[in-house]
């Protein structure tokens, strides 16, 4: 029987309890909301770029432990990345949580703690909500992102 606790490793619990980069960036140039209509979870991303690099990134909102932990880990990983690097990290992370492909654990760092969600399709949406929101924000979309 599936027990969500099986997924909760120490890092996930920590990032859910004390999310990093939680808050608002007043002078963000990209702000976008991500929404999971099935559960009602809503995250908002604030990104400050210089057009080519992510100089600062934060989020707020409400979500399940996996979605909050994923947003916390993602915002940590994205700080000071170029927008091109962000896109390739998105692709690597997406493969990590949806495929059995080998992954570069050194490059993905702490993000690998979310690899276990691939066995639980419902949880893939939780972990990827903030990532799809980030990707849309970076290409300039301003329509809220939904997981459905
Ligand atoms: Fe809503 Fe996880 S239950 S995003």
Plain-language structure description:
With 148 residues, the chain is of the alpha+beta class. The protein has one domain (4-146): Alpha-Beta Complex (Sufe protein. Chain: A). Helix content is 41%, strand content 18%. It is built from 5 helices and 4 strands; from the N terminus they run αβββααααβ. A 4-stranded mixed sheet has the order 3-2-1-4, covered by helices on one side. β1 and β2 form a beta hairpin. The chain is globular and about 40 Å long. Residues 36, 39, 41, 63-64, 66-67, 126, 129 line the site of FE2/S2 (inorganic) cluster. FE2/S2 (inorganic) cluster binds next to α2 and α5.
Structure summarized in a few sentences:
By secondary structure, the chain is α+β, with helices and mostly antiparallel strands. It has helices spanning 10-17, 65-78, 83-98, 105-108, 121-138; strands at 30-36, 41-49, 54-62, 145-146.
